Amino acid sequence: MMINPFFFRDIPSTDKVFISNLLGEWSILKSREELYALVSSSLKGGQLNELAAKGFYSESDTEALSFSKAAELNLTAKFSKGLFRPSLIMVVPTLRCDHDCAYCQVSRAPLSSVDHELEMKPAQIAQAIDKIAAPAFKLEIQGGEPLLRPRFIIDLVKELRVLRGHGFDVVIASALGPDMSDDFLEWMHTENVSLSVSFDGIPSVHSKIRKSRLFDSFERFKQQLKRLSDANLSKNVGFVSTITREIIELGPRKIISACSDLGIRRIYSRPIANYGFATVTKKLIGYSRKEYSDFLEAYIDEIVKSFQRGEVFFDEGIGLYLSNLYSPELNVHVDMQSPSGYALSACIVNYDGNIFGSDEARMLFESTKNPLLPLARISGSELLENNIEGHEGLISSSFSECSPLCDTCAYMPFCGSDPVHHLASQGDFVGLKPNSGYCHHITDIYDILIKKIGNGEITNKMVVSWLKR
Ligand code: SF4
């Protein structure tokens, strides 16, 4: 028996050890003793067969060579994802917003602003998108509050249909503040538009943290959900929540019961970002790494309990990591790719005509105005490219397989890199991982999931049910 290269990590607060390899296979060993037995090739029976089948062992030189070839092919497939045009195109028709969320990461502009609208015609934007987008892509309309510009959205989609037919899907990210006319709702229905709606899980927190000067934001959210339901659009609505200190203090059970009351079965939760106004407000509404990981663990416990009660609630923010563990080849999340999906799988056309390689890059630009951040600029019918040297450097620094510490990390086959996060927080594209909020979040969530899978709290049946859509 020969051992093939593998990674290992002691799972905190257990005796167990997580092992993984470049094929994206993994297993949980009972103890360090089992790890030593693996290394000394003294494992026996079913466990030996299972680990050999996952590529941790080879029986001969030929098999070891096959492992190397398979690992090479796996890496080639992973790296090749970036050789195509971006499949996620975001457009910001306005940075104005009717909400005043405490953790706003995009540095929203006031409703009355006249300087934060995309002035170019939809046809011009559609032509630019046609030049940069993959044959099949998702068009995500971002803001500010994009529903302040329904006519622009309709016209942009119309122009793009002329150029690209039905080769793209449309999703609008909104807090649902503005009125939606009957015509607009009908258009959304006809175009099968999805809505990614902000809802902070607990009504009182939503009204307080995601507040508006114009209305009670939770009441408004509820009215608008009803309107969408009446227009037969409920199935097109997804929910995104930002976890704040208040939510952590109130506890995860409250999120699940509030969502059940509203008929929400799936939500996508995420921690407060490190961009825009959130960089300041985080001191008031944020939390420590430990507080967040304790919350996550309690949240996962509650989701497990709710599954055991026969309920169907799930958080897709957790599902992203489970999906990476069980199907790493399906990962398309921009910040969880190696190399980063920056400009390779995503692009964003900003309200000012600048084009960025990721949503986070435009957020960082809004607060720094660093002229090196835009990739290009739309001017008239032309696409003016900026010097791409820095962007090439960003992408070439984003291979986790050769980043310090990532290159020996057991979670690396299921992780990625977020160069803009590290640029914003540490001043370079790679970042020192022991100081990286990105790395902390990922290691903590995988540690919790692996611990719960290892001790049988999370079962295969749950994973299959949660990841089924
Ligand atoms: S970012 Fe952290 S968790 Fe991800 S591969 Fe690197 S060291 Fe591991």
Automatic annotation (TrEMBL):
InterPro entries: Aldolase_TIM, Radical_SAM_PqqE_MftC-like, rSAM, rSAM_sf, Sulphatase_maturase_rSAM. Residues 83-309 form the Radical SAM core domain. The lineage of its organism: Bacteria, Pseudomonadati, Pseudomonadota, Gammaproteobacteria, Cellvibrionales. Keywords: Iron, Iron-sulfur, Metal-binding, S-adenosyl-L-methionine. Its cofactor is [4Fe-4S] cluster. It comes from Oceanicoccus sagamiensis. Pfam families: Radical_SAM. This is Radical SAM core domain-containing protein. GO terms for molecular function: iron-sulfur cluster binding; metal ion binding; oxidoreductase activity. Gene3D superfamilies: Aldolase class I. CDD domains: Radical_SAM. Coiled coil: none annotated. The keyword Secreted does not apply.
